[in-house]
Design goal:
Length: 654
């Protein structure tokens, strides 16, 4: 994308070296640093530049991916599907500097072309890593540290990097002058011509519901663990053998499951029939887990692509998004979802007809022509599919996918335990069976949809309630459920834990409430009659972002002094705050409380409404974060260049 220079300022005072402060040295900050290094020769030349990188956690990995966490915790992506480097698929104006995926990096370590990590155990783990293995987060930490080192080494001689292993607590300064970045425990601030906040995933203070549950727990001597990053949560209050209600069946639950079983000394063995058996340590609690769907996320697909590629995007790409952007107001379900559903169905049927033609009645060209002409979501499309695909099991049904336990009513708890074990086993079998390769095509189509949805959501054309409920809520949840599930071995472990009685399934439609008469938490679902009471409740999900409730002192201070505004959507006169820091979609400048873009402050990442969440990505998927990093780096360098050369145009009227 073309450079959109930030508002320029008069020449730098006193001839001092221009300075950029980046708060956050995790994957997002590292990605930005790589883009700065790539774009400096074109946009900044050989002039001196000071870059300050501020983060108390290790550079590259940051807090979430730091090596100092349990080696039992894994990534939920295969090594070959993780990269920090741009490739030819990325839409950007800057130069593409390719680099190795995580799997390729590990291969180079094995070959001696890249030094192994200093920790012998970690080095051995890296050398054992195969492309289709799921690495530990410690391995990813080592990869990210190496990427950071490469980005630093690529900086031209005139660019000096300064590391500050402290927490940034406040940013002050006038709109038309140098900024001051205050560090924890340091009396004098860093001075900056430009500040980029790459804060990553942040903790939040509990909302009203969570505070009330915590109050109830304190009053009755119970345990309540609110939404948190599981690796950082204090789980010591969960007693051996006691029932624990767990609300949430996604990746946070998987981490919780691991830490409370293997993390407490349990282990697995393989029986004579190849099945997995859990051997308890006796220190485990009993986890009663449920959610809205009542089932765990789908396992990652265990095979690769072969044969003809599905041509994506087809029905939801730049052309369709451009047409949607001409409309004054959009509703996701009415205007956008039919196109997305058709895109996902197209990927499914293209794969079915080209890889498994024996399960269809007509040839692909005839079907594709009629499919393309049919209205999205219309009865004609359903009739076409019914005629061409005889087995209903071969048809793409997003409603059934989204409600896997719809209509399931078991007479008692034990019957449901067996039913859900069968459900998970069937999912595991399907995810390694190449006969179901349309599932992989839908997965790839979802990644494509996610990329093209970003500019549409950022445009502000979606009705506020539709965006919050349908995009940020339903779509993101559906995407995660289908495409961002755990490695298959984790679900095999879940089955073993269920058979051992360490995990119990609560089912779909989970509701949890505080029961003052029982002095306990009570959980009920819609899949089997009855309920479960427990003295402990764990919210197995990440904290929702919140500018005003953030535990990050810098972000909270920005909200309090008005320098950083929360994104607020308006449905008529009703304000709908999103909890996200508002930024300009063009160049990521921070918007203040009054909606004015700040000339000297930018922000990237999941705490913003910039929409590009993932700091690293699957190769060749045009990851939105990569293009956003490039655009931000180029805008920053264009701005700083005016200070270095003294050729700035007149100052922006603030």
């Amino acid at each position: 994308m073309p450079v959109s220079p930030l508002p320029s300022r008069p020449p730098h005072p006193g001839g001092t070296v221009p300075s950029l402060v980046v708060v956050g040295a995790g994957p997002r900050g590292t990605g930005l640093l790589e883009r700065l290094a790539a774009n400096v020769p074109e946009l900044y030349g050989g002039s001196p530049l000071d870059v300050h990188l501020v983060d108390p956690y290790p550079p590259g990995a940051g807090r979430v991916w730091r090596a100092d966490q349990s080696p039992l915790l894994w990534m939920n992506s295969m090594a070959e599907d993780v990269t920090m480097f741009l490739d030819e698929s990325v839409t950007c104006a800057g130069p593409v500097r390719p680099g190795p995926t995580l799997a390729e990096w590990a291969e180079r370590v094995r070959a001696g072309r890249i030094p192994a990590p200093a920790d012998p155990a970690l080095a051995a783990e890296v050398r054992r890593l195969t492309p289709t293995a799921f690495p530990s987060r410690r391995v990813q930490s080592a990869y990210l540290a190496w990427v950071y080192e490469q980005a630093v080494a690529a900086l031209p001689p005139g660019v000096r990097l300064h590391r500050h292993r402290r927490r940034a607590v406040r940013v002050t300064g006038p709109r038309d002058g140098r900024q001051r970045v205050w560090l924890e425990g340091v009396p004098e601030p860093l001075t900056a011509d430009l500040v980029v906040l790459a804060l990553g995933h942040l903790d939040s203070e509990p909302d009203d519901e969570q505070r009330e549950l915590t109050r109830f727990a304190r009053e009755h001597g119970l345990v309540h663990i609110p939404p948190a990053y599981t690796a950082d949560a204090d789980l010591s209050a969960l007693r051996p053998g006691e029932p624990v209600i767990v609300r949430g069946f996604g990746l946070a639950f998987v981490d919780l499951m691991v830490l409370l079983t293997e993390g407490r000394g349990g282990r697995y063995r393989t029986d004579d029939h190849g099945g997995l058996v859990y051997l308890p340590s006796g220190r485990e609690p009993v986890l009663h887990v449920g959610s809205r769907r009542g089932v765990p996320y789908h396992a990652k697909i265990g095979y690769g692509w072969w044969g003809e590629r599905t041509p994506l995007p087809r029905f939801f790409g730049p052309e369709q998004v451009g047409e949607l952007l001409t409309r004054p107001a959009l509703d996701f379900r009415r205007d956008v979802w039919p196109l997305i559903a058709k895109e996902l169905a197209y990927a499914h049927y293209h794969r079915l007809f080209t890889a498994h033609p024996e399960r269809t009645r007509v040839n692909w060209p005839d079907f594709e022509e009629k499919f393309a002409a049919a209205a999205p979501g219309g009865a004609g499309l359903d009739a076409l599919i019914a005629d061409a695909v005889p087995d209903p099991a071969d048809r793409f049904d997003p409603v059934a996918l989204d409600h896997p336990l719809a209509g399931v009513r078991c007479p008692d708890e034990e019957t449901f335990q067996s039913y859900l074990r069968d459900h998970v086993t069937a999912d595991l079998d399907r995810r390694v069976d190449r006969a179901h390769s349309p599932d992989l095509a839908v997965f790839l189509a979802m990644l494509s949809v996610y990329t093209h949805l970003v500019p549409l959501v950022g445009s502000g054309r979606l009705a506020p309630r539709s965006r919050l409920a349908e995009v940020d809520g339903w779509w993101h949840g559906f995407f995660s459920f289908y495409a961002s599930g755990p490695p298959a071995p984790r679900l095999r472990q879940l089955l073993a834990l269920s058979r051992a009685g360490v995990v119990r399934f609560l089912g779909a439609g989970l509701t949890v409430h505080a029961d003052p008469r029982a002095r306990a938490f009570r959980a009920t679902g819609t899949t089997w009659p009855g309920d479960v009471t427990a003295r402990a409740l764990v919210e197995a999900r990440l904290p929702a972002p919140s500018v005003h409730r953030s535990r990050d002192p810098l972000l909270r201070a920005l909200a309090e002094d008005g320098g950083g505004g929360e994104e607020v959507l308006y449905d008529g006169t009703t304000a709908l705050p999103t909890g996200l820091l508002a930024v300009d979609p063009g160049d990521s400048r921070v918007l203040d409380r009054d909606g004015r873009p700040h000339p000297r402050r930018l922000a990237l990442g999941p705490h913003t409404n910039g929409r590009a969440y993932a700091a690293f990505a699957r190769p060749r998927t045009n990851a939105p974060a990569f293009g956003q990093n490039d655009a931000t780096a180029r805008a920053a360098l264009a701005f700083l260049r005016t200070l270095a050369t003294g050729d700035a145009p007149p100052a922006l009227t603030a």
